[in-house]
């Protein structure tokens, strides 16, 4: 985990995703859930925001 985690700031499980390319840690987001509910987001848009 880059940067670590703080257990007091979340509940539930943390899901890990494999690194697609080690050079700059590119990952692919397929689905986002909060409280067990799928947020039904277009993950391509989320990835674009993370790239800013």
From TrEMBL:
Cleavable signal peptide: none
Gene3D superfamilies reported in the protein's UniProt record: Acid Proteases
Domain Peptidase A1: 1-52
InterPro entries in the record: PEPTIDASE_A1, Peptidase_aspartic_dom_sf
SUPFAM superfamilies for the chain: Acid proteases
Pfam families referenced in this protein's UniProt entry, alphabetically: Asp
Protein name per the record: Peptidase A1 domain-containing protein
């Amino acid at each position: 985990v880059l940067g670590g985690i703080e257990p007091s700031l979340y509940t539930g499980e943390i899901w890990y995703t494999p690194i697609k390319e080690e050079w700059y840690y590119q990952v692919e987001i397929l689905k986002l859930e909060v409280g067990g509910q799928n947020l039904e987001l277009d993950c391509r848009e989320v990835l674009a925001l993370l790239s800013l």
